[in-house]
């Protein structure tokens, strides 16, 4: 949901730059963030309610670092397990694909606006503001597709746990780092730090 809102932010900044301060005022930003929290909460509650319909009659050892839904589904037994598993995957994939569709739609308008810029330098500079967001979208949806859309086969429990952990931990951890790399002050501070370190090593 947050990536979708960030795509909308880039759309407003590039397609409606003169109205950006109006459309993305602090109040509007607070509303958009509230919608992200609400959407995530609703998703979490839906998945929790679905999992409550499961029956657990075997091992209670979860092969994961957290109570991941797919790890819980592997411990379930009973006739309803297959339908509940399909329900969970359907909810997750619907939310992921719905948000992805809106992200792609925002970038269709963004690309159309960029192509109307006469200078190549202007097009490059405008598109470079989207690189951080696009990188996170590709990483996030790449791992999500591996988890939810991979075909059933001989996947070890360790590989499933690693992929799920990467999706839930690595992407949120990577996001602020990638977005911070566009901050000139931060880049200059990193460069100064490296220069000091190399100069101290050479001396």
UniProtKB/TrEMBL annotation:
Is Phosphoprotein a UniProt keyword of this protein?
no
Highest taxon in the source lineage: Eukaryota
Which part of the chain is the G-protein coupled receptors family 1 profile domain?
1-179
Q: Where exactly are the transmembrane stretches of this chain?
A: 32-56, 88-115, 127-149, 161-181
Keywords in alphabetical order: Cell membrane, G-protein coupled receptor, Membrane, Receptor, Sensory transduction, Transducer, Transmembrane, Transmembrane helix
Q: Which GO terms describe its cellular component?
A: plasma membrane
Location(s), subcellular? Cell membrane
Give GO terms: molecular function aspect only.
Answer: G protein-coupled receptor activity; olfactory receptor activity
Q: How does it sit in the membrane?
A: Multi-pass membrane protein
InterPro entries registered for this protein in UniProt:
GPCR_Rhodpsn_7TM (IPR017452), Olfact_rcpt (IPR000725)
| Cleaved signal peptide residues | none
PANTHER family named among the record's database cross-references: OLFACTORY RECEPTOR
**Protein known as:** G-protein coupled receptors family 1 profile domain-containing protein
Q: Which organism is it from?
A: Muntiacus muntjak (Barking deer)
């Amino acid at each position: 949901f947050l990536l979708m809102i960030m795509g909308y932010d880039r759309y407003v900044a590039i397609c409606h730059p003169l109205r950006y301060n109006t459309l993305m005022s602090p109040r509007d930003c607070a509303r958009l963030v509230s919608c992200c929290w609400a959407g995530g909460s609703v998703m979490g509650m839906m998945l929790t309610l679905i999992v409550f319909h499961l029956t657990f009659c075997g091992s209670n050892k979860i092969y994961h670092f957290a109570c991941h839904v797919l790890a819980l589904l592997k411990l379930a037994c009973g006739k309803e397990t297959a339908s509940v598993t399909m329900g969970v995957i359907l909810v997750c994939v619907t939310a992921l694909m719905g948000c992805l569709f809106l992200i792609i739609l925002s970038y269709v308008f963004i690309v159309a606006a960029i192509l109307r810029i006469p200078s190549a330098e202007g097009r490059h500079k405008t598109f470079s503001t989207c690189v951080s967001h696009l990188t996170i979208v590709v990483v996030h949806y790449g791992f999500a597709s591996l988890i939810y859309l991979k075909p059933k086969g001989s996947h070890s429990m360790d590989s499933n746990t690693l992929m799920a952990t990467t999706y839930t931990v690595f992407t949120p951890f990577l996001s602020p780092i990638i977005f911070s790399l566009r901050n000139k002050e931060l880049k200059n501070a990193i460069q100064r730090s490296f220069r000091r370190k190399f100069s101290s090593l050479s001396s």
